[in-house]
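pinned: reference chain
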Amino acid sequence: MQTKLADFIRNSPQGQEADAILRSCVHCGFCLATCPTYQILGDELDSPRGRIYLMKQMMEGQPVTQKTQLHLDRCLTCRACETTCPSGVRYGELVDISRDLLEKQVKRDIKSDIVRYMLRKILPNALIFNVLLKSGQAVRPFLPESLKKTIPVKSKPAKKWPVANHARKMLVLDGCVQPVLAPNINAATARVLDNLGIALIRAEKAGCCGAVTFHLNAQQESLDYMRRNIDAWWSWVEREEVEAIVVTASGCGVTVKEYGHLLQHDPVYAGKAAKISALAKDISEILYVELENIARLMDKRNINTGKTKLSFHSPCTLQHGMKIRGVTEKILVAAGFDLTIVPNAHLCCGSAGTYSILQPELSQQLLKNKVIALESGKPDQIATGNIGCLMHLQGGTAKSVKHWIELVDERLACGE
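pinned: its structure tokens
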């Protein structure tokens, strides 16, 4: 694609990156077939190729309006188009750059500004989020059914976190909403790794990965969250005491793996961020290496796995963002689960961070389609690998939805 970027961006780091991405697009249209919003709306401006045209026009200095903003807002940033693209177009990076530029040129209405501001301030703050969630749960029984669905039921307390002193150590990202909504996920991860002779360490001052604020176009605010996490982890990393930084929410994992790229121009944090990104691993990557040890452990404990039918929803951030495909599925099969076939498994469930709040109609259509696909194999349970997907899916099905690591933990606990 030929480009002629405007003076306001041409020589900036953002402009140079955007120009390279735009030039790699050859207009082939393969992305249309896998774009969730294009499939629903049928408008090419709600497809990756159409949005690329809009972004190119903006960067070449053409006028932009709220219509441009609407089409970019409707993008889930699921990155399914990147998986399909034969030219390797880094669409996710391009849309992040474009949204940041667009936010400075097109004003939103007051209601939208307030909603987005509240999301930025509440979701990354575990303390505030916890207080508000508990208040909502307290009045939940008295609300109409339509409102009840918007408030998650109270989670069960986390099971015991093992006190382990293994030579092998890994850090874990606590995150922001996950410890409040599903505190057992990281505890289950710690127990599974303890079984494998690995100690999982929590860093007290680490928190939100920065994804929520970054995708709400408060990108400088987001970089501060990233720097805070780097500072919280750095003493362990610098002393080379940990093998990896484990992330159990794929939405956070894809962001932590991009710290090095996002902070590449920071003279203080660029080197540290690159090291953190190199250490960041989705929990599936850790367990995949340990598959033989898991199998031996199950044999030693004479665990009768049975054949629980399970539907696995692979989050977009896992399969498209981190390009990790088929790995979790192999772990679940090794743990004795019978995985069902999920039609159109590449499509987004509609959660997409704050998308389910900001684009509720599209999100609910995607949720309905995803639940139909997941339930088509008549599973006993549904599993996923991201807290946002988990909560979103649970709101659309009567079947139990859990993080897959909890199911592995339960399976291993059968032989204790």
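why pinned: The first helix runs from residue 7 to 10. DSSP finds 25 helices and eight strands in the chain.
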